Every structure is written in C-alpha cells, then in structure tokens.
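Example 3.2
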Amino acid sequence: VVLLRKAILPRVTEGRFPLHSWTYFRHWLFGFASAASGASLSTVTATQFMTVWYRLLGAKLGKGTEVSTEFGGRYALVEVGDNSFIADGATVGEEDVRDGWVSLKKVTIGSRAFVGNDAVVAAGGEIGDGALVGVKSRLPDGDRVAPGEVWFGSPAIKLPLRQTFDGGAARTFAPPTWKVAFRWAFESVSISLPTAMQIAFGAAQIAFFAPALAQGRYGEALARATLGSAATAIAEYGVVVALKWLMIGRYRPRQAPMWSWWALRTEAIASLYGAFAADVLLSHLTGTPFLPWVLRLLGVKVGKGVWLGAFDFTEFDCVTIGDFCELNQFSALQTHLYEDRLMKIGRIELGRGVSVGADATVLYDSKVGDFARLGPRTVLMKGEDIPAATAWAGSPAAPSEAPATPVPAPGSTPQRGGVFKRRPIAAGSSTIVLPAWRIGSGASRSTLSNADA
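Structure, written as tokens:
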C-alpha cells in the first residue's frame, strides 16, 4: 500500500477536481487499498504501530499522538500536533463530492487535542491546542476551534467549561523510556496473537476434514468442514473469554492512566474482542437469542427476552441490561472515556423494556429507567438518570415529543412473547391505562397517573 501511494499518488494537495478524472481515480484507488489494509490490520488499532503506519501513508502526526480511526486517501492532508488523541470512528477531513466535483481541504489539529468517538471534523477544519470535540459531535464545515475550547453535540455547540484531570505526566503525556519500550513489546505480542490463533485453529480444521475430501467422501468432508467451522468459532471465542478473566478478572468502576499496566491489558482485551471475537462468532449471532448467552460469559448482565442488534461493549461487567430491552444496530453502551489521558470507567444500567435507537450512545455512570426510549443517534451524557417511560432524542439527549414505550397495564393476560395489546381508556378515568405488555406469568403491573404522564 505504501508503494502504491508513492507510485500513483505521491502528492495530495488541496483543491477541486472533476469526479470523472484520473486524479479522482488515483485518489479512490489509494483510499480503497488503505481501507482494505486497515481491515486486515484491525488488531493494530489503538496501538503505537497504528501511528507508524499512518505516517508511512503520508499523515503528519506529532510525537505521542494516538490515532484509532481511518483517514481514507486523505492522509497527506491531515496534520496533528504532539500528544493528541483521535478516537475510534472519527471522520476527519472527508472529501466533499457535489455537482460532479471533488473538493479536498487540509485538516489541522493542534497538540493535546481530543477528537471523540464518531465525531466529524469536516474538510478545512482547524482544532487548536488543548481543544476537545466530544463523542458523535459534528463541527460546522470549515469551522475553527480555538485553543482550549470544548464543543459537543450535533450540530456542535461550545460548552463553557469541562472537568480536567491530572493523572501525572509520567503516566499520561510524558511516559519514561522504559514504559514506551515495554508497551512496544507488549503490543507486539497482543497484535500477533489473533493471527497465530487463526493459523493454529485453521490448520486443525483442515486436518479434520481434508482426509475425507482426499478420499472422495465429499458428503462427509462437507459435514466435517461445517462442524469444524462451528467448533473453531466457539473455541476461538472461548480463548477470548479465558484471556479476559485471566488478564482482567471482573471490571469495576475505576480510573487508570493511559500508560498504566491495567490500561494496556484492557486495551488488548478490547482489541481481541472487537477484531477477533466479533468476526468469528458475535456478528453471526446478532439479533438471535444466542448473543445474550455468549455475552454473559464475558460478564455482561443480560436479562431475559433481550434483543441485541449490537454488541459494542468493552468493560463487560459494568453493563446491566434489563429484561426485554432492545439495542438497535450500531448502538453502544460506552462504559469508559479517556479524559486528559485518564481512562475513567463507570457502570451503565438499563431498566426493563428499554429501547436504544440505532447508532445511539449511552455514556458511563448512566441509568435508564424502565420502558424509556432513546431515539436514533442519541447521545446520553455521562451521569444521566433517565426517568421511566420517557422518550429522549438528540445529542446531547433531551426529552422528545415522541411517545415513550408503553408500560405494563393492569389486568393484562400473561402470555409468551413481547406483544403490545391496545386497551381502551375508560371515560372519565383519572388513570391512563397504557397498552399491555404481555410478557409471561408473574409480570409486574403498573400504571401512569395523569400527573405522571
């Protein structure tokens, strides 16, 4: 990929050029190749190797900067100062295509700046030293964030202040040489482990079905290959589970500097989980009753009747999901944040019947009451306590006019399955009888008074 860049796209400059042009084709080809290489190097994410790799692709990254996202074919147009942090899924300087033309502009991020998960910094943006762009925040196109400013939301608004933390320079921004060397050594092992596991399990799987194939017993070979694939996926996931309990044990709320031994271990487990367990097993179980089962092995507390269209968890034991909750696609229960390079971990608790919309994010130290609903792409700030049977939307989350998920009504007939049954409201009644949630014998009953509603 590096040679391809030097051969077809040695220089990337700001400007505007036709979509149907040789320039765009070269830009697209390099972006495609770098994205493909990123998929094969997924275990390198959030390690020191990622920074080295991006520099080879043309990005100008300062000393001590950490990057966990892709820059597509725009590496040469990204300049980041020293000790900055660009989190997973952030979009930085995406090209603008309209009316048959492609526009590219440089993005400049200062020193000790922070760009949160899934945040968007448009082409031409400038972020000053010490500035912060929050989780899933969208800065105005070409806007400039002054040094020390904090922006959050979609569209982003400037916040007057934020908490700051001092974890000690030796464990955050200026680690001693021996810690840097130790991290290089540890990450060399952690990023190699998934590949080694795939080779070992792959060889065992081939040895299991190859003799039958060689002897022409094709039906038996197919059966053995199918059985071997399922057994391999389960065994590989079992290795991730075992390593989690051996290296971490049980996650609890805590604070840990980025250059601590604990932070190194949890980042290694998160990388194995996201790049390995997700691919071999979890992605195939999404939306099935089996996904909650296997997540419980890692420590996630999942109630009965839960539907999971997403499995973006890191500190597994800090997540509690009540009965009959629904987590839609790309939603995330984010139990940690890096603040001034101090990893802060807290719990997230979802009550019964909670619905989390697609691409929504719940930050740590938050509680969501029974039958509350979070709309698509909602961001629930840390430390929030959402009342039961309410609806929330936006970034940051605010009360929504949309009706909340109905709560159980009195007199409902217990039946299997999560079915809502419309019930009439008695004339002149002071109580709103909401649709019945028929969830099985022994279900609790509750109503909302007019005042509560």
